[in-house]
Amino acid sequence: MKVLVTGTAGFIGSTLALKLLERGDEVIGIDNINDYYDVNLKLARLERVKQHDGFTEVKTDLENRDVIEATFKEHQPQRVVNLAAQAGVRYSIENPHAYIESNIIGFMNILQSCRETEVEHLVYASTSSVYGSHTNMPFSVETGVDHPMSLYAATKKSNELMAHTYSHLFNLPTTGLRFFTVYGPWGRPDMALFLFTRNILEGKPIDVFNYGKHKRDFTYVHDIVEGVIRTLDSVATPNADWDSSNPDPATSSAPYRIYNIGNNAPVDLEHYIDTLEKCLGKKAEKNLLPLQAGDVPDTYADVSKLIEDVGYKPDTSVEEGISNFVNWYREYYKV
User: Closest Cα to residue 5, out of 170, 229, 258?
Assistant: First the structure.
């Protein structure tokens, strides 16, 4: 297929683009390569992708409506995966406008271009952060999510609502994927595993929020990508049993679906750090801090709908995933 992927210099986007190219798909990759974090890391990820035939690079912001529309019209992608976004819960408190521009205006441009070029299926990244203040776990896609705790989460919930509108009005098949704490090789430097690894190796203390009492459904990046590909290949369809008097939030009478992609096995942050220490062969000095604004204490994904509809469940253990990340980190940074 011809697949347009946004965020191809990103952590998940570059890994997805490689998998699609390796199976013979043509990929049109969009990324603005901004400086939210280390540009050299983004360029290194992109270089791996560009080594494959069948990849076309487009450097632009999602907010640039003219370029987005022209790219869709020129390449006529059959399917689209939107992974580009302004990420991060804590950064959304400091720089809210960046989230509206990229995650709302940018996503609007993707939706409209999908409509105009009659794209077969749009798959887009949402987040476990949409569950906000919920404590009824595991988090189910059949549960309403109306109490976000950060603007980042609010923009991602907005994406789900916007997608449903296009599915309903224009019969555009859309699938939203709520990712749960993604980690692994080529990860983001602003995320915990990267920060912990760097500081431990440099002999610096690590900031451990909520005094280490977090539980997270840590999900390995290759498991995330496999879930994206499975759902991309399974075009969203209307739910024939959808009941407007008892509406299911994860489906619709329109071609619209929402899935969790998580490991379905929450891990204590303390165990996560302990596993990292063993892989590094070095103990961490911990700076214990209270829960940060916008963060939630625990996450836990119910993936029963993902299993039921596409036959897939993430299963990489944190022991294997962290070991793979440490090996990559040592090689990439020559540590």
Answer: 229
Nearest to 22 by CA among 191, 222, 205: 222
State pTM to two decimals. 0.95
Q: Are 4 and 81 in contact (CB under 8 A)?
A: yes
pLDDT of residue 156: 95
Is residue 152 among the annotated active site residues? yes
Radius of gyration of the chain (CA): 19
SS3 81: strand
Residue 333 has pLDDT above 70, yes or no: yes
Q: b/e for 305-331, b at 16 or more Cβ within 10 A?
A: bbeebbebbbebebeebbebbbeebee
Q: Which of 91, 152, 272, 312 is catalytic?
A: 152
Length of the chain: 335
The CA-based angle 114-154-130, given to 5 degrees, is: 95
pLDDT for 250 beyond 90: yes
The span from the CA of 230 to the CA of 77, in Å, is 18
Torsion, Cα of 70, 72, 73, 74 (10° steps): 80
